[in-house]
Amino acid sequence: MTVKKKYSKCDTFYYITFTCFQWISLFEITGLYDFIYNWFQKLALRKVYLSCFVIMPNHIHLLVYTKNSRDAINTIIGTEKRFMAYEIVKRLKKLNDIDLLKKMEASVSAKEKERKKKHQVFEPSFDIKEIYTEKFIRQKLNYIHKNPVSGKWKLVEHYLDYPHSSARFYDLGEQSNCRIYHYEEVMSEANTL
Questions:
Q1: By C-alpha distance, which of 86, 74, 84 is closest to 48?
Q2: 149 falls within a domain
Q3: Three-state DSSP state, 38
Q4: pLDDT tens digits, residue range 94-138?
Q5: Is 3 contained in some domain?
Q6: Which helix (H) or strand (E) covers residue 151, if one does?
Q7: Fewer Cβ close by (within 10 Å): the C or N end of the chain?
Q8: Domain-located, residue 46
């Protein structure tokens, strides 16, 4: 789904998904997990608070709560994705993955090249949905946390074994590699964030 609408409402939850170029496992290839955990902290500095996540080898699902009344969530995520893209390209160069870099470069449109874009790192759009109810939040939490064991993935035997997810935080009370704002805490303390 292409994001054409600006989601500028704050004091609300959003479900967000974005995918690497041609579903290639760029996060896995480049070992980008450390960078993404740091990226989550940068979102918090922009008043976008992470409530749930899974980092798959080639895509990310997030549930965030935003208090940023100045910038639309689309703009925040789009801007921050750009820095993630630079880091992926930098790491691919360090890995000397010339074939993949050439493929990503060849996929940049002429219009994008005019704007100085050099590599197509992500699929051109990302999904974003405002979450209105706690039932919808719980549905997305379940989907996000079970993603590593669903469909073709089967990355682990049990979803709680997948290391790049907030599942253990919710189900076992364990802290993650980054600060997670439990959605119930956010709902009850939204005015104090």
A1: 74
A2: yes
A3: helix
A4: 999 999 999 999 999 899 889 899 999 999 878 899 998 999 999
A5: no
A6: none
A7: N
A8: yes
SS3 content of the chain, % helix, strand, coil (to 5): 50, 15, 35
Q: Based on the structure, what is the number of domains in the chain?
A: 1
**How many other C-beta atoms can be found within 10 angstroms of the C-beta atom of residue 20?**
26
Contact assessment for residue 43 and residue 80, using Cβ atoms and an 8 Å cutoff: yes
CB atoms closer than 10 angstroms to residue 178:
17
- Token reading at 58: 């080639």
Q: What residue numbers bound the domain in which 123 lies?
A: 12-192
Instruction: Please state at what angle helix 33-45 crosses helix 73-94, rounded to 10 degrees.
Output: 150
How is residue 152 written in tokens? 């073709």
Higher pLDDT, residue 164 or 186? 164
- Quick: pLDDT tens for 171-180: 999 988 899 9
Sign of CA dihedral 80, 84, 89, 93: positive
Nearest to 147 by CA among 60, 79, 69: 60
Cα separation of 120 and 98, whole Å? 14
Q: How confident is the model at residue 7 (pLDDT cuts 50, 70, 90)?
A: low
In a domain, 95, yes or no: yes
- The CATH number assigned to the domain holding 34 equals 3.30.70.1290
